[in-house]
Protein 1
Amino acid sequence: MERRTLILLLVPFILALSTACDSGAPSPTAAAPTTVAQAGSKPTFTVISPSDGALVAQGSTLSVRSSAADPRGITKVELWVDGVLYRMDITREAEGLPSVTLTQTWPAADLGPHVLLLKAINRDGVASDPLTLSVSVVPQSAVTPSGTRTPSATAGAAPAATTTPVTVVLPSPTPSACEPDAAFVSDVTVPDGTAFKPGDPIVKTWRVRNSGKCGWEAGYQLTFVDGNQMGAAKTVAVPPTAPSATADITVRMTAPATPGDYTGKWKLTTTSGVLFGQTLTIIVKVSGPATPTPPPTPTVAPTPGAAAISFVADRTTIPYGDCATLKWDVDNALSVKLDGKGVVGHDARQACPTATTDYVLEVSITGGSDPVERTVTLTVNPPLRAAGATINAGDSVDLKTAIKNTGDVDILWDATKTLLPKNGATFAVIGIKRALTDVQQSECLNATNYSNGNLTSSSVASGIVICFKTGSGRNGKLFITDSSGPLSFQWVVW
C-alpha cells in the first residue's frame, strides 16, 4: 500500500519535470488556427436559381440569383447571355465584400435556346470558375401556370410519362405602368481611384444598359443623389434608349481644391423625377497642388477694358468620323462670330469635319479698326473606307471595299432581319445615338463586349451604333438608319 502511494505521488512530479526539460520555459496555450486570405485565391460561386434547362415564357423577366464568396473580397459579378456581357454588378467597396448574394434580371424576348454564363471576380481580378445555364424561351401558350408544357390533345393517346420538373418562368401580370430599370455596364472613362490634381477637369462617362422593358424617353436624366458633386450640374440629359440597348452618359466635373478621396453617386430619373436603376458611382483621388492655369495671351495691350480672346480645341487631329470640341472665351468685345455667324462670347461647340478644316473666330473690338481673328485647324486623318448602303435579305457586304456579295465579306443580312458577322468579324453594340459621329474611334477601340454572335432585331433598330472588327483586324463603326425592310446603314473603317 505504501509503495502504491509513493508511485502516485511521483507521477505529477515526473510530468512537470518532463515539460520543463522539453522547452526550457512554460509552454503557452496553443492558439486556434487562423485562415489567411491568400492573394490569387479564386472565388467560390453558386447559382441558386433558376435550374439548368429552365423554360422561360416569352415576355417574362428571368431572375438569376447567385451567391459568391472569397476571403479576398468579391468586387463584381458578371452575367453573360449568348456570349455577350449583358450585366455587371459591382460592390463598389474598395476591398470587396467577403460574400455577396444578388439577383440579376434578363428580359426573355427572343424565342429559342439561350446560354447564360455567370462568374464572380475578386479584388485581385481573379475570376471564379464560370457557371453556365441553358434556358429556353418558349411561347406563353407552351407553358401553363402549373409549370408544365401544354400537352397536345390526341384522342386515345397514352398518358404522358412523368419527367423531372423544370423551372418555368411566366410573365408577371401587366402592371399599370412600365417600370424602368438600368444596369451599370462599365466605366468608359475615369476608372475608380483615378488621380487628379486640384482644379483638374474630370469628364466621367458611364456605360449603362436599359435593363427594363420600356424605353428611356426624351427627358430622362441622370441625377446627383449623394456624396461629392464636384462642381457638376445637378442633372444631365440621358439619350433615348431602347430596352436591352446601352447608352453612354457623360458628366463634366472639376477636381476639388483640397486633396483627399471623393465619391459621387448618381441615379437615373424619369420625366416625373422618379429615381430608378443601379447607382452609378465615381471615386477619385485628389493630390498635390493645383495645376496652374496660364493667363490668356491678350490680343492688345492689357489696358482696362481691353479684349481678352481664347479660342482652342480639345484636340486638333481626329480620325475620320470623329468630332472635336471648339471652345472660346471672349471678353470686352463688340461682337463675336464663328465662321461668319454670330455667337455669344463664352461657349463651346462640337465640330465633326470630314476633311481638314479651318475654323475662324472673328472678334470686333471696341475702338479697333479691324476685327481680330483667331484660327483653329482640325486635321482629319482619312479612313480606309467611309460609305453608306442599303442591302436586301441575303445580301452580304465587304466593309473594307464596300462591295456586295463578293470578296471577304464581313456582314450578312438574312431573311429573319438578323445581322450576322462573317469571316471572323465581331460586333460590339454601343446603343442608340443621334448620328455616327456620336461614337468616337477610341470608344470602339476600348470596347470590351465584342462578340461573334448574331444581332437580332432589338440590336439592329434604327439609330443603333455598332462597333466592329473585321477578320483581318480592321476596326470601324456602323450606324443603322433603317431596318424595317432592307437594311440601310452608314459605316467607317479605319
Protein 2
Amino acid sequence: MNSKKQFNIIITGGGTGGHFYPILAIADAIKERESQLPKDVSLGIHYIGSRFGIEERKAHEYEYPYTLVPIKGFSRYRSFESLIQNLLLPSRILRTWLITRKLFKNLKPVACIATGGYVSMMPGMVANKMSVPLFLQEQNAYPGMTTKRLSQGAKELFFAYDAVKKYIKHDISMKKLGNPIRSNIIPKNKIEARKAMGLDPDKFTLFIFGGSQGALNINRHIAERAASWIQKYNIQILWQSGTHSFNMLNKEFGTHNNIKLLPFINDMSSAYSSADLIIARAGALSLAEIERMQIPSILIPLPTAAGNHQFYNAKALEELGCAVIVEEKDFPQSPLMKHLNNLVNNPVKLQQMQDSFPVVKEDAAEAIADRIIEILMTQQYGSTNAR
C-alpha cells in the first residue's frame, strides 16, 4: 500500500485586510500548483489568525482549515479598556505560544509563510525555533516590526518596495516580487459593475474607502462635504465606511439617492470597476489593487503609519502620474476640492492618469508561490524537477 507524504504549510498574517488577503492569495497560488508536486505528495495548508482581527469574520469563507489564537496587539491608547487589554497581553502571548507550538508539532509543516501583523510573530518565532523554513512577505515601503524581527532566521523575504532593503539588517535572501492580491480582483464592464453595486449606470462615480477598517478622519472630513460635491459635480458616491463609522454616517446618508454607503464590500471587483475616481488610504494592498484595476486615485496616507510608509507607498504612484497625494494635515485648506475640480468630469486628464499605470507583467502571488515551491522541492528532493 502506497502512502503519500504529507506536505503541510502553515500560513499566517492578519489583523487587517492588508495582511490577511495577501496570505490567502499566496495560499491559493500554491494550491493551484499542487499538480506540480511529486505524485507521492499530499498538500495541506493551515491558516493561523487572531480572534480579534478581520480574519475572525472572514476566515470561514475560505477552504483552508484555520486556528484563531487569542493574541492582540499592544494598545497605545490611554483608556481603561486599553489598560485592561495590555494587562491581559502576557497571558494571551503565553496561550498563543502554547497553541501555536502544539499545532506545529501536530502538523509537522515543511514551511511557514507570514505576511505580517501581530498574529504572525508567534508562528514565525516557532518556525525559526523548530527549524521550519520561514518565508516572509512585506507589503510596505517601511517593514513592520514583525518582518524586521522575524527576518533573523527566515529563509527568504519577498517585498514590493526597494526601500525595504535598507531596514532589514539581517543576512537574508530577498526578492522583489510585488504585492499579492486576491485573484478575483478583475476588471468588469463599468455599466454592469454599477448595476451590481446598485448605482446609476450612467453617472460619474467616486469610490471612497479607507481599507477594511475604514478611516475615521477621512470619513468625517468627507461627511461635511459629500452633499455639496454631489450637487456641484452631479456625481454619485460609493462609500465603504468601515464598520466603526457606518452607524455615524448612515444616520446622515443612509437614504441619500446618490450615496451608496456600505460598512464593507465583498465584491471589490464591481466596486473598483464602477469607479471613475477613487479616494482612499495608501495601504499596500489597496495600492496593489488600484494598480491592477488602473483607477485614477486621490491617496490620503495614514499619518500615524510606521515610518510614514503609506506616504512612500503612495509617492511611487504619484511619481508615475496615476495618483495624487493629499495629506491629512492639509485638510483645513480643503485640498480635495482642488483635485476634484481638476479631475471630476475631465475625461482627458483621467485617461492620462489611467494610461500612466505600469503594465503588471507577473502576478505577485504566482511568482511567490513558484519560488516557495522551487525552494521546498530542492530542499526535499535535491531537485526542482522531482515528480
